[in-house]
Amino acid sequence: MKTRMRAPKRPASRVRGQYAREPRSNFVSGNRLALLCLCIAILFGVLWTPSPIPNAPASPPFEVVDLPGRGKGLVATRDIKRGDLLIREAPLLRIPQQITSSPTALLSSLLSALPAASLSAFFALSAVHLPSSPDPDPLDVALAIVQTNAVAAGEGHIGVFPTMARLNHACAGAFNAVYSWRAGEGVLVVHAVRDVRRGEELLTTYMDTKRKREDRRAYLLGQYAFNCTCATCSLAPALSAQSDARLEEMAALYSQFASWGGGAIDGRAAADIARRIWALGEAEGYVSERGRLAGDVVWVAAAHSDVEALRAWGALAEEWYGYELGRESAEVRGVREAVARPAGHAAWGTRPGMAIGGGP
């Protein structure tokens, strides 16, 4: 029987989930080795130095600091430009979401293979929903750490990244960094999606925050045990209501936009919806996901054989994919190829010809 292990944080966004817990009597014998390694790491508190990752920033533009009442976080040590690479990190652990064995047995095996320094880095991470026992089993603690810090790391996998895990959460227009997994390189990259001044905290998002404040806060409190006080959640009531309306409209429009795939709307309507989403994002300060939105309209334009629209939206997709995923990403290369050879696009001419209009 398969057990599903889901990433706690957004899907290349984060999807929160719970690992199934196993009673201690079901631990496999290999747990003894894991427990010994864990005890060594905890006892000596070995400092962790990550292995060099090719093309990683030579000098990270941030430092890990203690934030009163909020644990640790990443603060910019210099001015950062939108699109700058902040982190390039290999996973400390990479775990399949579908397994046929006990989750704790798998975790035990993975931890047993780590050197003491890496174990120390792992156990230095925060965790919510810790076991209530005053003397919890280290593997139960490890399970809670994975639940709190793991993010999507490729198809069917989640990963734990000690540096990226120090990024705290902010909602909607308040976060300034996004991450993505690069399957071909086996690393996670984090890019700035807006300019950040020296001394400002780097923030990502743990969920799809296109929902009203009440719902966002309830989710975060239940899953991560904190009441969000980010800039968006701290707006005055009247401004918060306006923000909620924009975000909920964006979510509804994304659903309408997706209906083009099934033929419910035509290409012109899909492009109109995309332009409205873009305008709402501008008003909200929600600049994430623009690369994908523009890239999707490129597909619509190709299907309707609209070269002019394809190139206009392609320029936007290249720009915003470059900010969010990196200018060397596969998505940027794909858009460039589509713009250079529109008729070579996989969707070209699959729908009736139609002028859908250019970008916002």
Provide a descriptive summary of the structure in words.
- Helix 1 (31-44) crosses helix 2 (103-112), helix 8 (290-303) packs antiparallel against helix 9 (307-325) and helix 9 (307-325) runs antiparallel to helix 10 (330-340).
- The chain contains ten helices and twelve strands.
- Mean pLDDT is 86; it is low at 10-52.
- The protein folds into two domains: 3-204, SET domain (Beta-clip-like, Beta Complex), CATH 2.170.270.10; 237-344.
- It is α+β, with helices and mostly antiparallel strands.
- The strands form four sheets. A four-stranded mixed beta sheet has the order 2-3-12-9, with no helix packed on it.
- It is 39% helix and 14% strand.
- The N and C termini lie far apart (50 Å).
